[in-house]
Every structure is written in structure tokens, then in C-alpha cells.
Amino acid sequence: MKKYINKNIIKNFIIIFSLLILSEIIFKIINNFNILDWSILRIMLSDLIISMIISCILYFIPKKIHKYIIILITFIISIYSLAQTGFNNFIGVYMSLSTSSQLGAVIDYIREFILSFKWYYYFMLIPFVVSLVYFIFFDKLVNKKFKINLNKNKYKELDKKLFIKKSLIYLSSILVILGLYISTLYIPFMQNKLQTVSNTKLFLNPSIPSVSIKQFGIAMYGTMDVKNYIAPVEEEIIYETDNEEIEKDKTRSFDDTKWNDLISNESDQTLNSLNNYFINNNISDINSYTGMFEDKNLIVIMMESVNDIFINEEDFPNFYKLYNEGWHWENNYSPRNSCATGNNEMSTMTSLYSIQNTCTANTYRKNTYFESIFNLFNNKGYRTFSAHDYTAHYYYRDEIHKNMGSGHYYDVEELGIDFSSQYKNWASDEDFMVKVLDILDTFDKDDKVMSYLTTVTSHQPYSVSCIQGDYYLDLFKDEDISMDLKRYKSKLTYLDRGLGVLINGLEERGKLDDTVIVLFGDHYPYGIAKKTINTVLDYDVTVDYEAERVPFVIYNSEMEAKTFKEYTSYINILPTIANLFNLDYDPRLYMGTDLFSEDYKSLVVFSDGSWKNELAYYDAAKGNIEYYTDKEYSVEEIQEINSMIDLKMNMSSLAIKNNYFNYLYNKLNVENNDESNICEFDKDKINQKES
User: N or C: which end of the chain has fewer CB within 10 A?
Assistant: First the structure.
């Protein structure tokens, strides 16, 4: 009896552990993680613990179904590993249960998702195949050799003393290994000194999936993700200062009397950490660009799935005119995250980093932001509106934009644009711009107008026949490019002609000179394989986050054309616009910086904490740095940059989770802090409706 128990548990343990380790090694190799660093020891210990727990649980389950349970577990891990690898390749981030609200959106383009898999991704299924082969051909031989008979019934009664003894030994073994595992979170040589978030913090909350998976392995990450979804652990972030005033010769100054009083009287430690962080944030100076566009109209256009392929005078002359005759940034990026379009739209409107691996725009759609782009223009006396030529199928824009301060949000139905409920067919951006001009016509001649537009026609899919993807195919029939690129260009043609409609319409109305147009891509067309995109661009999109590079243009018909080489992203758009239009804004409330400020540091930060500039690319997932020049950073300089990024992202997340800007507005502006007025902003300024 004793031998039977030991052999059966040990056999199951060895099988499960071997299959888990095989899964981890294949995952690391395919995802280009180093398998020889110290993280493999931590991963092996976690797989030991998981294997021991599962084999112990199997003891209490009928022996005849053990093999089916092990096969099922292996199948789940193999499919999960395959899906995570494919998702990271397709979307740019690893999956989390925190973004399960977007499952419907993924299902809509499941064909493109599967087609994006590289052939060797399917090696992830090897552990599952091995488990099948073992149990079909070898399990009986192993049982016979080690005299394990799963059909015997004479062992139904187990000696209680023996059971307790063996259970205690087994439990003790698990606890010892668990202790060793926990020690790996603290032992210095097992930590990457360049890592942005410590392993102890990631163990409690795997907030950065790429780093978590690399450090803890795919099986443990999945376990941690489930745990955190069911019982989330919020890290307590305490930010304190000595409150000593640092003398700065600043051309912008603020009366912080009320804010300091609030800090003195606030008992909530989290809110006071945010208060201390923002009040001590940097105040950028005014500069030679301040007020350059004061009192002009503004149209911000977030262009769906647009990358540098759009910069083509022959194919897309209208955009090229804006790009070539305006200001453009050669090194602008739109880092992807779990809900790239919605989250990047939100980040543009607030200059806050979205919460890693969370569909932030949707999850926190009830938040209000008095410092948003809409409210800054509302307070300047502008009439504001926003529009998108699709429904609220993915994002709750009707609620999000209203709480951002948009005077009115128009969706495709209110605009009266023809659209299809089929995923592959979208509304026309040409029709969209016609409707935008109609809205502009409803305002009085003397009204100053600010609008935020999000296009849709160039959205994937590109691998299947569809109305917009086929409509302009003849324009590109002679080009030696793949069919998905031709369909993409056909869709971009809709957008380009839509821009032509807008430019001509503004000129006909005498509004072009008085209007500033800001354009940027929300993300690259990730429905097209990177190697395919490489065939039409002059840089390699498969390395160093280069796929995230997208156009960023500021255009006015009276401006002098300029090219900027600084590294930047959408996080800097709001403070830059606020400075150019000389709006009444506090630079301390934003994670981005005015691009024309002397304080601006050329840098782009990606969603996992990786970063890039002229000198180097730091890979947060791998914890290493690659240099582009002979100049190198010291370890201390890299740690300083990483700490700055980590602090910004953490404080941004904390502010969003606590609806901090709603709190701050009401505390500083509502007389006697009447809590009943919270969220009730000045209706005359913020909820303006067009006639």
C-alpha cells in the first residue's frame, strides 16, 4: 500500500513537472527570452510547487481519470501559451483577465489574429502532443515496470496514521520549496537591477505582464493573473516631500494656498500622496511658441491604424500636404496597450498614462477630468464637440467624452452616416468629414471651435475582401505588394480623401487660415504582419518597438514647415497644444510635457515601461539596454530614468483609480467643500451644446 501511494504520486508529479518545464522552455525560446538567466530557477521552483499540489489533489480523485486530467491541464497550458504569444505579436501586449471586456472585439477579428501566428508558434503545442503520446503508448509500460496497478480496489482503506504521516511530509516539502521560492524574490543576485518594477511587487500584482511572464513563467503568471482578478491587491503608494519650497525662476506661477491647505487637512494617505506628487511636479516655462495659435480653431484627428505608410505624396496627397507643409515629428510613437484605440484616445485627452493591462477608458469611464483638453478649451470660451464614425461597440465614448467635457459627442448614427454591422465593413471617412463640416456650419461665425475626431475606415481586417478594402484596389494594382497591403492602402485612400474634403471645406468657408489641424495615428495596422510592412518602409518594424512609430502632424496654412527629430508620443500632445493656444493650464497636472519647453526630454515610453531615445532602447521585459551611439548611460542613470517612468505610471494609475481630478476640482473650487456638488462642474463652461 505504502509503495503504491508513493509511486503513484511520484509518477504523476514527474509527468506534470516535466510537461510544465517543457512548456516554459519552449515559451521562453519562442518569445526570445533568455533561458539561462536566474529567472529559470524561480520558474522551476514554481513549477515544482504547482506539480506537487496537482499530484496531491489527484490522489483523492479516481485513478482511472488521472491521465485525462493531466492531458487537459497540459492542453490548457499549451493553448494559453500559444494565445499569449500570438496576442503579444498581434496586439503588442500579453493578455490579462483585467481586459476580458475586450474579448468580443478580439473575436471579431479572430481570423486575422490566427493568421498573424508565425509557423513556429505552434511548437507551443508540443507539451500537449507529448502528453498524448505518453499516455497512449508508454503509460501502461511505466505502470507495469513500477508495479502500479490502478485497477486494484483493495487499497480503499488507508491507515490513518500512515496517511497523516505522509501528508505532513508532503506538506512540509511544499512549504520548504515555497520558502525557497519566496527567497528568490529577495536574493540580490536573482534581481535585475535595471528592472522598473521589483519582483516582490510583481508577485503581488503582475501589473506589467511582459516583465511578470519573463520573471515568473507562463504557468505562474496565469495563476497570478487569476488570483489578482478574483482578489486584486492594490499597492500602497506613498509620495512624500519635505515641503521645502525650491526657488525657481518660472514664468508660470500658481497660487497654491488652497492646495497646501487641502494637503494639511487631508487624512486620506493615498489622496495626499497624489496631492504631494502633483503640487511638486515640474512647471514648464512659457517659450517662444507660447500663444502662437491663440484664438484659432482646433481640429484634433486621431487616425485609425495609420503608420508611416501614409506618408506618400503620390498615393495620399492630402495628408502629405499637411505633413510636408506643417510641423511633423519623425520619431513619434503610439505605444499599444490592451485597448490601444480607446486608451490612447484617453491619454491624448488627459496626458495620463492608461493603466497597464486594463481597458482604462471603459473601466473608468465615469471619471471626470477638469484639466482635460475639452475643459481647457471650454474655459477659454470655445465651443467643443467630438465625433467618431462608428458605434459604441468597443468603447463607451458617449459617456467617456461627456465626462471629459466634450460639449457634444456624435456617433455614426447621430451623424447619419451609412455603416455596416459587419465587422469587415466600416463607415466612410469621406462621409465623416462631410458631416463634420455640417456640424461646423451650425456654429455662429464668431464662435471659436475645438473638436476631436476619431476616424475608422482604415481599421482592419485587411486579409479579407470588404467594401472599403476593395473599392480603390485598382489604384494599386500595379504595385508589387501583398494583397493585404493593397487593401490597407485602399482604406487609407478613404481617409486621405476625407482629409481633402475637410481642407477644401474649411478653405471654402474662409476658415482654413484660422484653423489648426493636429493629426496622429492611434497605432500601426497590426492586422498586417510586420515582415509585410517592412516591404514598404525604409526601417525595420520588427525591432526595438519600431512598429509603434506613427505620424504626428500639426498644421496651419500660415505656418512655416518644420521637421522635429525629438522622440515623443501622444502623452505630450495635450500640454503642447495648451501652450500653443496659450490656454489657462497647470503643467503639473500632466504626465507629458510641452514639446517646445526647455524642460522637455526627448524620450518615448512604451506601455511596459520600455523606453527609447536617440541614444538607446531599454527593453523592460528583458531588463537590458541597446545603444545606438558610442555614448552609454551609467547604471545609476538608467535606474534614474526607470524610476522616473515607474513613478509617473504609478501616480497616473493611482489618479485614475481614485478619480483624483474630480476630487481635486471639487476640493479646490466648491465653496465649503459641499460634497453634494461633486462631479457638478460649471455647466455654462463645460456642457455647452451647439444650437
Answer: C
Measure the CA–CA gap between 658 and 652, rounded to whole angstroms. Answer: 10
What residue ranges of the chain have pLDDT lower than 70?
1-6, 99-108, 146-163, 235-236, 240-250, 670-691
What percentage of the chain reaches a pLDDT higher than 70?
90
Residue-wise pLDDT for 253-305, tens only, equals 899 999 999 999 999 999 999 999 999 999 999 999 999 999 999 999 999 99
What is the rounded CA–CA span in Å between residue 618 and residue 636? 14
How far CA 577 is from CA of 246, 251, 293, in Å, comes to 28, 18, 9
Q: How many CB atoms lie within 10 A of CB 457?
A: 29
Q: How far is CA 240 from CA 201, 265, 665, in A?
A: 20, 15, 21
**Residue 108, pLDDT score:** 67
Q: What's the whole-model pTM score?
A: 0.88
Query: Which pairs count as long-range contacts for 561-566, CB under 8 Å and 24+ apart, including other chains?
Result: 561/324, 561/325, 561/326, 561/327, 562/327, 562/328, 563/327, 563/328, 563/330, 564/327, 564/328, 564/329, 564/330, 564/595, 565/329, 565/330, 565/331, 565/614, 566/329, 566/331, 566/595, 566/600, 566/602
Average pLDDT, the chain: 89
Q: Residue 593 and residue 673: Cα distance in Å, rounded?
A: 31
CB-based burial label for 232 (10 Å; 0-12, 13-18, 19+): exposed
Distance of alpha carbon 553 from alpha carbon 517, whole angstroms:
8
My answer on whether 225 and 300 are in the same domain is no
pLDDT in tens, 450-470: 999 999 999 999 988 999 999
Could you give the CA distance from residue 83 to residue 91 in angstroms, rounded to a whole number?
11
**What is the span of the domain harbouring residue 53?**
2-230
Specify whether 186 is located in the same domain as 39. Answer: yes
235 is written with which cell numbers?
Answer: 499597492
Q: HSE on the CB side for 320, CA within 13 Å?
A: 11
